[in-house]
C-alpha cells in the first residue's frame, strides 16, 4: 500500500487517464510537453485511486496483465475521442465557412493536427475552448471520469453492438453539427451566388463569377461576425451534454 491505496490500482488508473488525456481536445499534442501531460495524469490518478476498489494486478499472469493494460488504454482513448467529437464538428463548420467566404487559402498552424488550417476553423476551435473553460467543463469531466469507474470497472470494458451503433450515429452526426453552426454563412453564400447568377443572365458583359468573390467575402465575414453569438449557443448546447454523453458511452462500454 502507498498513500492509502494499492500501487496496482494507481497504475491502472494512471494508464486510463494518460490515454484519455492524450486525445482530449484542450491539450494540444505539440505545444504541451509530454512531461506535463504525464504529470497531469499522475496527479489525477492520485486523486481518484483512493476511492476505487483495489485491483491486484501483480497476481495475474503476464498475458492477462497485457490484456488488462490494453483494455485500459482502449477505454481511455475511446472516452477521449467522445470528448473530442464536438471539436471535429467545429472543424467541419470552419471548413464550410472558409469555403463560403473564399478563405480556404488563409491558413494558420493548427496545434491539434500539426497542419495548416483555415482561419475560420481556428476561430471556432478557440471559441469552443473558451466556452469549455467558461462552463467549467474540465471539472465536470473529472467528476464524470470518477463516475465512469462505477460503470466500467478496471479491465471490465468490452465492445458490443449498442456501443458500435452509438459511435457510428455520433460520428455520422458530425456533418449535421457543422452545418447547423455554419448555416447563416452558408445560406448567405447561396443567396449571393443566386443574385450574381441572375445578374450574369441580365448583364452578359459582366464577369459575375469574378465580381462575386469580393462580395462573398465581405458579406460572409459580416454575417459570420453577427452570428457568432448564435454559433456560441449551438456550441454550448453540445458542450453541456458532454458529461452525460461521456457517461452514456461508458455505460455502453461497460455493458450497462
Please describe the biggest sheet, giving its number of strands, its sense, and whether it closes into a barrel.
2 strands, antiparallel
Q: Give the neighbour order of strands across the main sheet.
A: 1-2
The ordered H/E elements are HHHEEHHHHHHH
Q: Mean pLDDT, nearest integer?
A: 82
Residue share in helix: over 70%
Radius of gyration: 23 Å
* Beta-strand content estimate: under 5%
Number of H/I helices: 10
**Separation, N- and C-terminal Cα atoms:** 31 Å
Shape: elongated
| Low-confidence residue ranges | none
Structural class estimated from helices and strands: mainly alpha
Number of beta strands: 2
Number of domains: 1
Topology, pairings included?
Blueprint: H1 7-23, H2 34-48, H3 62-101, E1 107-110, E2 115-118, H4 119-134, H5 137-151, H6 161-172, H7 174-202, H8 208-226, H9 228-240, H10 242-253
Antiparallel strand pairs: 1-2
Helix pairs in contact: 1-2, 1-3, 3-4, 3-7, 3-10, 4-9, 5-10, 7-8
Amino acid at each position: 500500500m502507498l498513500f492509502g491505496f494499492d500501487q496496482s490500482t494507481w497504475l491502472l488508473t494512471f494508464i486510463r487517464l494518460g490515454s484519455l488525456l492524450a486525445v482530449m481536445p484542450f491539450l494540444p499534442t505539440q505545444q504541451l510537453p509530454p512531461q506535463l501531460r504525464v504529470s497531469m495524469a499522475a496527479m489525477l490518478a492520485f486523486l481518484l485511486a483512493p476511492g476505487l476498489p483495489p485491483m491486484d494486478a501483480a497476481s495475474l499472469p503476464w498475458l492477462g496483465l497485457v490484456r488488462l493494460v490494453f483494455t485500459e488504454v482502449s477505454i481511455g482513448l475511446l472516452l477521449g475521442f467522445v470528448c473530442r467529437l464536438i471539436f471535429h464538428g467545429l472543424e467541419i463548420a470552419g471548413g464550410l465557412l472558409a469555403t463560403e467566404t473564399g478563405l480556404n487559402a488563409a491558413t494558420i498552424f493548427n496545434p491539434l493536427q500539426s497542419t495548416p488550417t483555415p482561419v475560420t476553423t481556428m476561430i471556432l476551435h478557440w471559441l469552443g475552448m473558451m466556452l469549455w473553460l467558461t462552463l467549467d467543463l474540465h471539472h465536470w469531466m473529472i467528476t464524470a471520469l470518477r463516475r465512469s469507474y462505477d460503470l466500467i470497472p478496471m479491465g471490465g470494458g468490452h465492445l458490443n453492438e449498442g456501443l458500435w451503433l452509438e459511435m457510428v450515429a455520433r460520428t455520422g452526426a458530425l456533418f449535421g453539427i457543422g452545418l447547423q453552426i455554419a448555416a447563416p454563412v452558408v445560406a448567405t453564400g447561396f443567396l449571393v451566388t443566386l443574385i450574381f447568377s441572375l445578374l450574369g443572365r441580365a448583364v452578359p458583359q459582366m464577369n459575375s463569377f469574378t465580381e462575386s468573390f469580393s462580395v462573398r467575402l465581405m458579406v460572409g465575414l459580416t454575417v459570420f461576425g453577427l452570428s457568432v453569438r448564435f454559433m456560441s449557443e449551438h456550441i454550448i448546447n453540445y458542450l453541456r451534454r458532454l458529461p452525460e454523453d461521456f457517461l452514456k458511452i461508458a455505460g455502453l462500454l461497460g455493458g450497462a
